[in-house]
Design goal:
mainly beta; 7-stranded antiparallel sheet
Amino acid sequence: MRALKRLVAILLILGVASPAWAAPPSTETITNQDMTLTVIDTPFCEPGATHEIALTFNEVTHVTEFDDGRVHFTFTQTGTFDAIPLEPGGQAATGHFTVWGGFNNNGKTVNGTFTFNANGTLEDGTRVSTHLVDHFNVTPSGSEFFFTRCHE
């Protein structure tokens, strides 16, 4: 009988305490359509002429936050681009792109990875394709690590 009483007491304590440690995270999903953005940059991996790049895209963002401060964030953008050269010698380009990003923070480490993929056509008919990965990591000691890889 004592064992049963102890078990019931433990279950009651766990039942009262469990909402504090078992609270579900806060999650939000945001969807945007027909977004536009214009940037000045050099398209593709190789250095070249600066372009004004007009982007039209859809975007989905997910954010998850935990009561203990942990955060997880991802987003995806996909759409089309029109790149107009701002300097002599550059070629205009049009095509499709997708960007994905992910970010995590657990209070001790922070990391993020971003990918960019573009496929398009230059005005002379040449097909172009680019894949870029950026990654960063910050350790509990504060050390920072970064890398960028880009290939066509």
